[in-house]
Each structure stands twice: as structure tokens, then as C-alpha cells.
Amino acid sequence: MLEFLSQFSPVKQALMGTMFTYGVTALGSGLVFFFKSIKKTVLNGMLGFAAGVMIAASFWSLLAPGIAMAEEVGQTPWVSASLGFLAGGGFLYLVDKILPHLHMGLETGQAEGIKTSWQRSILLVLAITLHNIPEGLAVGVAFGAAATGSMSGATLAGALALTIGIGLQNFPEGAAVSIPLRREGFSRTKSFLYGQASGLVEPIAGVAGAYAVISMQNILPYALSFAAGAMIYVVIEELIPEAQREEGGSKTDIATIGAMVGFCVMMILDVALG
Fold first, then answer.
1. Do 126 and 101 form a contact (C-beta atoms < 8 A)?
2. What letter would DSSP give residue 211?
3. DSSP state for residue 151 in the 8-state scheme
4. Is the confidence at residue 266, as pLDDT, over 90?
5. What are the sequence ranges of the domains in the chain?
6. 242: Cβ–Cβ under 8 A, 6 or more apart, which residues?
7. For the segment 74-90, what is each residue's pLDDT rounded down to a tens digit?
8. 223/144 Cα distance (integer angstroms)
9. Which residues, other chains included, contact 264 with Cβ-Cβ below 8 Å and sequence gap of 6+?
10. Which of 49, 132, 182, 262 is 20 to 30 A (C-alpha) from 168?
11. Do residues 135 and 54 lie in contact, with contact meaning Cβ atoms separated by under 8 Å?
């Protein structure tokens, strides 16, 4: 697999990687053809798993290589890591405040972002699309960083491990979009189409991230930390609160276990393959 990927440019590698993660999102969305509803506890476990994967990926696949790169090029590691991390979170904060979107289970009047007359279905999908921006960006930046060659801490194997990890958490995430849409009253086909569409932003963000870092290699440590900050923002602002929300109670153990498992899976992937 690594020999096959090494034949292509970093931008093409990022495109292939994010097309894979998008494809897994579509597969997960396809579960709507077999299930009309999903228990909230199961959904919480899925969201917890996704959160765990993203937390682990933020450190093992992004922050740690970024710090190593900063040391190698003579930058102050904590400066580039901190500034990039905060910038990534700030970017997602601005997008969150500007882009109209609506979280599952809320009334249309509770939509966030700029006020709009868009349909409820569009607002629901845009809320999940926000999750996928930093995921695609992280994969693209990882492949771009691996292409530097001389930089320590970032390898093609590590980028592949990150891609697999993001893909794994995209499967339950896809189901977590399409099945609730079905419960909202949409047809199975429409729920699937909206669910898979939420992942289309990943190839766009991935290609943009890879192109940016190979064009300006001196920003690599900042770019890796930026992607990590964006992912952590999504985890804390979106995934964890939703996973902790229980219908008719406050049970949080399933989501917590899911997060622990997701973290371990991503850590194993990165250490074993990276």
C-alpha cells in the first residue's frame, strides 16, 4: 500500500485518502436502508468512539509530529504548537458562528449561525459537515507533511494510519447522520443522500490542506497544530455534548467507553503503522 501511494504527489495522496474517508461515511449512511431508528445509547457510543479517535489523532498524528518538526527547523516548539492549535480552534469557532446549521433533536428556530430561510434538512446536514472539515484538513496536512522527507515525525505510514482512523470513525458518524434524518421523517433514499453529502467536504479540505503545506513548508508545524486544534474544537463543542445527552436520563457510561475504545484504536493504528 505504501509503495502504491508513494507513486503519487501529496495532493493526489490526500485526494485518495479523503475519498476513502468520504466513502466510509457513505457506507455508514447506507445503514439507513436497514434500520429506521437507532437507540440513543448506541448513537452515544458511536459519537463517543468518534470523539476518542479524533482526540488521539490530534496528538499522535498531528501535534507530536508538528512539535518534532518545529524543533528540527529551529522554531520554538511550544510557540508553533500553541499558536497553530488556538488558530485551528478559532477558525472552527468563526465557521460555527457564521455557517447556518442545526443540531439533531432541536427545533428549526434553534439553528445556529447567520439567520436563514434554508430548509431544516439542509441545516441538519450542515451541522455534520462542520465535523468533517477538520477531518479532511488533518488527512491532507498529514500527507503534505509526509512529503517533506527530511522532516522528522511525519511519515507516509503515519498519514495512512490517520486516514484509516478517520475512516473508522466516519462509519458510525455516517449512520449517526442518516438514521436520525430518517427519524425526522425523510425517506430512506433522501436520508442516505444527505448523510453521504455531509462527507463531501473532506476531499475539498484534504486537497486544500495538502496543497497549502507543500507550497509553504515553513508553516508545516503550524499547519499540523492548526488541524489538531480544529479537531479538538469539534470534539468538545459538538461530539462530547451530543454523546452525553441521554433521552430520559443522564447515563454517560456508554459514550465514555466508546471514547476510550476510539482513543485506543487510533493510538494503536498510529504507533503500529506510523
1. yes
2. H
3. S
4. yes
5. 9-273
6. 44, 47, 103, 104
7. 888 999 999 999 999 99
8. 10
9. 52, 56
10. 182
11. yes
Cβ-based neighbour number of residue 10 at 10 Å: 25
Contact criterion met (CB below 8 Å) for 89 and 234:
no
Span 32-58, pLDDT tens digits: 999 888 888 888 898 899 999 999 999
| Contacts of the segment 30-36: beta carbons below 8 A, 24+ positions apart | 30/174, 30/178, 30/192, 31/174, 31/175, 31/178, 31/179, 32/175, 32/178, 32/179, 32/181, 32/182, 32/188, 32/191, 32/192, 32/195, 33/188, 33/192, 35/175, 35/179, 36/179, 36/182, 36/183
Look-up of cell digits 474544537 = 233
Q: Of 203, 204, 176, give the one whose Cα is nearest residue 191.
A: 176
229 CB neighbour count, 10 Å cutoff:
26
DSSP element (H, E) containing 153? none
What cell numbers appear for 210 in the block? 495538502
Q: Which residue has the cell 457510543?
A: 45
Point out which residues pair with 238 in neighbouring strands.
none
Q: If 0-12 CB within 10 Å is exposed, 13-18 middle and 19+ buried, where does residue 202 land? A: buried
Q: DSSP of 25-87, one letter per residue?
A: HHHHHGGGGT-S---HHHHHHHHHHHHHHHHHHIIIIIIHHHHHHHHHTT--HHHHHHHHHHH
Q: What angle do CA 228, 132, 202 make, to 5 degrees?
A: 100
